[in-house]
Please model this.
Amino acid sequence: MNLGGKKREPLDVNITPLIDVVFLLLIFFMVSTTFKKETSIKIDLPEASAKPVKNNKKTFELIVDSKGRYFIKNKGLVNQELKTVKQVLLKNLGKNSKRPFVIRADNNSPHGSVVRVMDAARQLGILNLSIAITQPKE
Model:
């Protein structure tokens, strides 16, 4: 007489379907995510045939609209004086920073407004400066 009962096989948890679902969700979110950077400030960038540069996530951008006003992270600066621009750049980039600095100036913005930003960057020793453009439509 055997009173020990039947020996049961150990339970196995199969996680393969779970992994499949996780990968499908990952692919879905990667495909459905919008990577275009949108802003509420309407600017019309000038066109140039230069090749686009790889976008760096640590890039600091200053926007100059068609009226010569400055915006950083969709917030306008108090005024357009050189001193104010220098203070903002110093606060966000630091002195002699190697962080990329991009000026996104409207095609119709006053020339002096863009030069003022470039001058402030030069005075602070910021050398990694570029101006955003759009590719010409073919």
